[in-house]
Each structure stands twice: as structure tokens, then as C-alpha cells.
Amino acid sequence: MTTHSQAEPTAVDAIPDSLNTKQMRRILASSFLGSAIEFYDFLLYATAAALVFGTVFFADLGPGMAAFASFGTLAAGYVARPLGGVIFGHFGDRVGRKAVLVVAMLTMGIATTLIGLLPTTAQIGVVAPILLVALRVVQGLAVGGEWGGAVLMALEHAPARQRGFAASFANLGGPAGALLATLAVSAVTLLPDEQFLSWGWRIPFLLSIVLVLVGLVVRLKVAETPLFQNLEKAAESKKTPLMDVLTCYPRSLILALIAGTSIYTIQGLVTVWGVSHVVELGADKTGVLNAKALGAVAIVITTVIGARLSDRFGRRPVMLTGAIAAALTAYPILMLIDTGTVWGFTIAAVAAQAIQGVIFGPFGAFVAELFPTRMRYTGASLAFQSATTLGAGFTPAIAAGLMIVAGGSIVLVGTVWVLAFLVAAGAILLSREGRDSNLADES
């Protein structure tokens, strides 16, 4: 714990008493907007992987294997996310949250725009999918540095009793970005199939550069967090943040990773594999994407509710409620997807993502409060990004493989879903409650 003389106020004194100030409104807007743009880029790829990339980059493999290969490239970005969390988290803990977030956003914007310009396999052969994977990895590195920094910019500025709600603005950026990406792809699916597959799918990727420029304008106006400024003055630790996390807080890292994996199991199964599966069964693409957009709206609403409730009752009780609900509804949701209808998928997507939001709302504060300031960016990012890799990165490909093994039955997919949430519930119960912790004492 760092000590300071009475004559010199600490940077922590700058933390406001309310979120309703000009400074805090700007900080929350920056956290939300930056996260939304990053996740627009990252999740745009997921939608394209479900609908486009199998045809454009893997047409020679046959429908089943093309879907598997396409989801494999999707997983490559998720594999890169923990590495991005470590790299950007290291500099975020040593240099500052703000500067790292600016670099992460620029990196993402460039990679996404280049995907929109990428020639197809028919044009340049095997080089095309290789470049696609390389750009997907860059996307993964960039988004790996975004979430942790966006959460901390809000949380480390916020009053103690509103940290859960403040941190949720970064979480809200994810579904908002997914909603924007889904609507962008849905709009271009109105083109004739030939035009959609030849050039229409590229438009949402090229729009990324415009969104990134807007996000940078907002992000550059935000000040560094008071807790990090205080840490800089104290010169608290010269150790490598990653080693600090692995040697001092391995239990917190593992429990947060397990709890977070559950959130992204739903995302991978419903909004990626589910989209591909229901369209393959004959549902209209545009209708399915519009249903997915409704699911994103549902998660935005329940994320806010979950975050607010966590400030009142604690992070663990709210997240545990969501985990139990997810386990109980796994098979009904999958059965609705398996109807192969737009109406079935709409109900499934809204229900699944509403439950996901209950867990997701408190999660930003939950994971950040498990680590002290000097390693918080690295610890929170590594836990969250590893969770997304395990939960969302591999589940679409795993689900596709399980469907082949089970002869088209959803039984094995449902089993994986239920087990993921039962294990997550145990991890949440074993975690420390951070709602009443004093982050200034944990620098």
C-alpha cells in the first residue's frame, strides 16, 4: 500500500462523487464508443465467417468443411486475443491506459479495412486465406488490448458505489458493436447473391476506417485515470505485470477465466454457429441477421440491469443467477435454433443474449476488482481475452464438429453448453466479492 503526505493530495482525490459530471460523461462515452468500434470490427468478421468466407475463400472444400475452415480462421483471432491482452496490458500498466487504447484502435481499424480489400482465393489462390488469417490475428491482438483498457478508464475514474455500472459501458460497447456489424451486413445481404459475394460484403469492412477516426477524436480528449497517475507517482512496482499476475494472483486469474468463458459460450454457439446452422437449414439470411440484431438489443438492456444490480447486491449473486438460468435454458434455446426458422432463431437469440447480459453486466467490475492497480490492465485483459478465446473462439468450430459426430443432433452441443455454465457457477462461488473493495488501497 502506498503512503502519501498530508500536504500533497493524491491523484485519487480527483475521483468524482457522481457519474453525472462533464468529465465522467466524456469518459463513459469514450469507453463505450471505443469498445463499440473495436467490437464492430472484430464481430463483423464473425458474421462474415458464418455467411461469406466459406464461399469466397474455401469454396473448393465442400459445404461442411468450408464452414469448419471458415470458423477456424475466426478462432485464429480469438487465439491472438490473450497475447494482445498481455502485450497491450503490459504497456497499459507501465505507460498508461489512454495511450495504449489509442494504439489498439488504430491497429484494429487498419486490419479490418485491409480485410475489406483482400482478393479472393479465385483471384490469388492460397495466398488469400493465408492473408485472411494473418489479418484476423492482427484483429485479435488489437481487440485483446481494448476491453481491459476501456473497462479501467471507466472503473478507475468512477465513484466506488457506481463502479459496476461505469465498467459496464465498455461491456455495452461489445453488443452495440455487434448490433452495428449485424445491421451493416444485413443491409448488404439485400443485394443479389452474386453481387453480395463479389463486392457487397466488403462495404461494412471498409466503413471501419470512418468509425475509427470518429472514435479517436473522442478517445484523445479523455484524461488518464487517477489511480494510474497515483501509481506513477509512487513508482510502486518495476516488475513485469504479467509475472506479478502469474505469481501473486494465479487463483484470481483462473477463476475469472472460467467465469468469463461461460459468457462467450453463448455468443459462440448462438450468434456465430447458430446463424450458420439456421441459414443452412433454410432460414432467410436477412431475417436471421435482423433476429441477431434483436438479440444484441436484448443484451444491451440486461447488461445495464445486471451492472446496476451488482452495485447494489454484489457481482457474484447477479452473475450466479445468470449462469444458472443459462444452464437451465440451454436445450430449449438450441431446439428453437434447430427449427430452421427465423421465428425460432429470433426467440432463441433474444433469450440467450438476455441471459448473457445478466452475467456480462457485472463482469467488467468483477474481473478488474480481482487485481491491484499495478497489474490490473494485464490481469483483467488476460482473464477476459483467454475466456473469449475458449468460449467464443472455439465453440463455433467445436459445435460444427459435434453436429457431424452426432449425425446432425444438437444433444452434444447442448451438453457442452450446460457443462460450461455449471463449471462457471462454481468459479463464481469461489471468487472474492469486490463490490466493497477500496481500489486505492490495492495499488
Automatic annotation (TrEMBL):
Membrane topology: Multi-pass membrane protein
One Pfam family matching this protein: MFS_1
Signal peptide (UniProt feature, chain positions): none
Keyword Glycosyltransferase on entry: no
Major facilitator superfamily (MFS) profile domain boundaries: 27-432
Subcellular location: Cell membrane
Transmembrane segments: 32-59, 65-88, 100-118, 124-144, 165-187, 199-218, 253-275, 287-306, 318-337, 343-368, 380-404, 410-430
The entry's keywords: Cell membrane, Membrane, Plasmid, Transmembrane, Transmembrane helix, Transport
GO cellular component: plasma membrane
InterPro entries linked to this entry: MFS, MFS_dom, MFS_sugar_transport-like, MFS_trans_sf, Sugar_transporter_CS
Molecular function in Gene Ontology: transmembrane transporter activity
Name this protein carries in UniProt: MFS transporter
Source organism of this protein record: Rhodococcus opacus
